[in-house]
Amino acid sequence: MPAPDGLEVCRRIRAVSVVPIIMLTVRDQVFDKVRGLDVGADDYLTKPFDPIELLARMRALLRRASSVPPQGASERFEVGDVSLDTGSREVRVRGEVVPLTSTEYRLLEALARAGGATVSHRDLLKRVWGPEYPAETGYVKASVRRLRRKLGDDADPPRVIQSDWGRGYRLAVPPHATNE
Question: Would the pTM count as exceeding 0.85?
Fold first, then answer.
């Protein structure tokens, strides 16, 4: 792809939108995949690929992106200085709105709904990416890393999203949930 490259295009789109993004590329090294996901792609598919697989991934991404909570079922979760409103799909840190990709939002919501319990890599993959990604733990790790950075939670140790090594992730403090 001529300048700007796909990573820069993804960054620019992500700066203004949460539209689902699938990167299609010949770069098949793990480093390249992680980099693509880190800049904001929701999925990454290497060439050559089967068009049927691409269509399935597109359907899955659109299904997840269009899942809007039912009217009146809004919940708010608060973990320290992070708040998540499921009705507006808005995340705030210290009162300031933080733009998240649809994948990052679903990841944070899945952790919040777990009430402080550890959610395994496999369960996060099913809930956030869908059942067609049973072994892609790199997706979870890259998305958690991006999410921590956006939440200002990239200190050592993180204050909001904790790692349970070899098991999965959990919120450091069980979220306080309220129905609105």
Answer: no
